[in-house]
Amino acid sequence: MDEIPLKESLSKLMRISVLIKENGDLWLVYDTEIEEKLEWVEFDSETKTLILVTNKGNMHDIDLKLKPRAYERLLNAKIVFLMFMRNGETLEKIREIPVTVRDIY
User: Has residue 2 been placed in a domain?
Assistant: First the structure.
């Protein structure tokens, strides 16, 4: 089966921050509008990648290096809160989308 190629990394297109609470709640804060609607986030525990999947099936790697503790917390992630901010102002309503965790263990 062929792998679906990833689109350009979002960290190259915008400023993006990842916040992960101890319970696994995940927040993505970004400063540039994303053209396609984000549908879900995938975390691959083997490759340590966070992939955003759009309504058109396009996949974007966030391409951020996180601390080991953050990866452990991501294993418990169920939802991600999306916050589009610029100059300290929230520009859209905060959205929640599901997280899928691919864990090989």
Answer: no
